[in-house]
Each structure stands twice: as C-alpha cells, then as structure tokens.
Amino acid sequence: MHLLVCGGAGYVGSHVAKVLDARGHRVTVLDNLSTGHAQAVRWGPLIRADLLDPASLDAAFQDQRFDAVLHFCARSLVGESMAAPYDYYENNVVGTLNLLQAMRRHGVDRIVFSSTAAVFGNPVAALIDEDHPKAPINPYGASKLMVERILADAAHAYGLRSVCLRYFNAAGASANDGIGESHEPETHLIPNLLRALINPAAPLKVFGEDYPTPDGTCVRDYVHVLDLADAHARALDYMEAAPGAHAFNLGNGTGFSVMQVIRAAERVTGLPVPFERAPRRAGDPPVLVAASQRAREVLEWSPTHTSIEAILRTAWDWHRAPAF
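Given the sequence above, the corresponding structure tokens read:
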C-alpha cells in the first residue's frame, strides 16, 4: 500500500515508517517539523504541511493517491495541556478534523490513529482494558477521546474504517537506524533519566513521592516503540476485513514505578542516576497499566521487548550517540 504517515518525523511516527517500509509498503511522511526532525525521515519522501492549514493538506492529497493514513500529529504533554488547553483542542481535535475532511474529499477511507492511555483518567481496575470507563483528567486525554468519538461517528456516517491504538508509555529506540526519542522540552521519564546520566549537573526530577503506590512514585506500563510500530502494521492488515471503528490498548501488562525504572537504569548502565524530588505534576494519575488481551487475540500482536532493562538498553544506546 501507499501510506501517508502524518507526524512521521516524530518519535513514534519515524519508527512506524521504518517498520512499514520493511514490510514492503510505500511510505510518504507529512510533517510540519514543529517538533519532528527531518533527519528522522529515512523511509520515504517528506511533505511539509500542517493539519491546521487545510490548503496544504489538499495539496498533499492532490499530488498522489494514498491507500490509508497513519496519524501521529499531536501535542502530547500532559502538563502543557493543563496550562494551554485551547492549543490542545485546536491542534489535536481541529487538526484531526481537517485531516479527516481532506481524506474524505480525496477518497481515502482508512486511518490508524495514535491515541493514548490518558483517555481513561484515574483507573478503577488494576489492569485497564478497552471497556474501562473513559474519564480523562487532562485536556490532552480529553482531546484524544474526542477524536476517538469522531472516528466512531465517521464510521457510521461515511463508512470510514479506523483503528485507535491507545499507547501506554512508549519507550526505547532503534539506535542502529539512527532514530530515537528526542523532544524539546522532554517530559518523559526514560529519556530524562538517561540525559541525567550523561549530564549529572542536570539531575532527573522525580515528580511526587506521596502517590498511593508501593514506593510513593507513579507506576507506568512501558512498551517498546518498535512493538508499537508492529501493532500499527497489524492494524492496517486488520482493517482490510474489518469495517467500522476499533480501539485497542497497547502495553506490556506490567507496571514499574519511577524508582523501579531508575534502579533498572542503574543496572543497565552501571551508573548512579542523579535525581531530586519535586512536587506532583497536575494531571498525572498514580497508576496506568494496560490489559492488552484484545490486541493479542484480534491483531495477533505480542510485545517482543518484555523487560524494562531491555527497553532501557535500546534507549541508552540511542542517547549515547543520538543522530539528531
């Protein structure tokens, strides 16, 4: 298939482009490079366009025919979304509507959407499956849930086929391919703790030590970015025979606290992680751990990076010699 990867210059999008290319698909990347990196576009041409500029989207779709779209363009910082909700609803909801309308005008009826565990809010079960109540506690999660609803409505009204993939914590890298996690500002735990190892003068901040967890720090489910990419390829195959709107949770099914990740990083690198305590960040739930049984059964997806040490090792390889 010829696939348009929107946000393919970013962290997850670039890894998905790599996997799709390896599976014989033709990839074109669409990105405005506001947070992505041109150096990460290595598996197909780059179209400079912006989801908030419908004319630029029409130009992209007019030039060539796409069989499906994979959509990674989003603002994705929980704390920033609390401070600037209008920006999040405009970029994540209005931008997606612009993309969907351009797809409809140009006859593209399949999309894989990058969603998030933030649609669930504070969990009411130890493992979060797809039927868990959706009650986001920050504008980022709310904006993604709005798009999920739009996709469900579009399936009914227009016959749009869609798969929403709700990531828990994407982590790791494909260092041998020169791609990894590089955001500015960086808010994710694993890249920040590895940066602190490289530059001990800028210690990691551990946000909150009074959560209702065994050691008082947040617990998260980490899934390797290449395992996420594999799920996207499988979602494309699934849509071939599955009309309608679908959603799957993607995680390893095991939670690790911030302190557990720090100790694992010390074992992998042999170095002490310099860190300092800081107050909680607004919008952070105490625990988020996925139940991914539906993806395992329906998409026949299974993570191959199952230990936090294995995930950290690939990220450490990238951070020691980043390509951008």
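The chain has two domains: 2-171+223-250, 175-220+253-320. Try to locate this feature in the token string yourself.
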